[in-house]
Amino acid sequence: MKLYTYFRSSAAYRVRIALNLKGLTYQAVPVHLLKNGGEQHQEEYRRINPSGLLPAFQDDWITLTQSMAIIEYLEEAHPEVPLLPGDAPGRARVRELAQIIGCDIHPINNLRVLSYLVKQLGLSEQAKGDWYRHWVIEGFKSLEAHLARDPGAGPFCHGDRPTIADCYLVPQVFNAQRFDVDVAAFPNIARINALCTDLPAFKDAHPSRQPDAE
Question: What is the value of pTM for the model shown?
Answer without folding.
Answer: 0.94
